[in-house]
Structure formats: C-alpha cells, structure tokens
Amino acid sequence: MPGNRVVARFRDGRTVKGTTTDFLPTRDTLHIHTNGTVDTVQLAELKALFFVRDLVGDPGRQDSNEFDLARTVVGRKIRVEFADGEVLVGTTQGYQPERAGFFVVPADHDTNHERVFVLRASTRSVSLL
Asked: Does the pTM of the predicted model rise above 0.70?
C-alpha cells in the first residue's frame, strides 16, 4: 500500500508500524495499515508519530542528538524531552506552544526517522536552542 511509512509510539509504550495516507496534524485520528489490517489511531493517545525511511530500521543503532556542523541547519533548533525521559534534538519550522503537536527533523541525518510529529501532551519540556 502506498503512503507514508510510520511508527506510532503510544504514551502507554505500545508501538504500531505501518503506512498511512490520511495523517493531518489538525485531525483527531489517523489510520495505519499493517499487514492487511487497518488500525484507527487517536492522536491524543500518541507520544509521537515517526515518519521513517523503512519499517525495519536498526534496533541496535543509537541515534545522536548532535548536529553535523558540516551541514546547513534549516529551521529552529529544538530540544524535546518526553515525559518518559527520551530526548529528541532537531529542527522545527512550526513549533507553537499552544498547538497540540509539531514536527521535528532529527539532528542525526543518518537516523531512520525522516521527521517526527511530537504530541505536546507527551512532553516534559520543550526548549528552543
């Protein structure tokens, strides 16, 4: 099925991997297609939605939160600490504290994550760098 490859990480620790064609940050739900089934996902239940290069990834890889100084940075640098202690550093072009979510492009260009939609309710702190 065509669409965006995504990994939905829920606030309760669950993970769902698949594809979606109907994600909009302003909607309450999206549908994730996985192995012939379709899951309806409530955005309010998510920690973050990871748009990925491939669904397998490299489970042993440790992503870096450091910017490659040889690359041009587009957007504002941001540091997100999730309620579970995970930290994501990257850039954003649309962070507004009053919105329910925002996109982050990870600082690590070699990560499997192309961009991440962070749900504000799942964060402990957000700071512009």
From this structure: yes
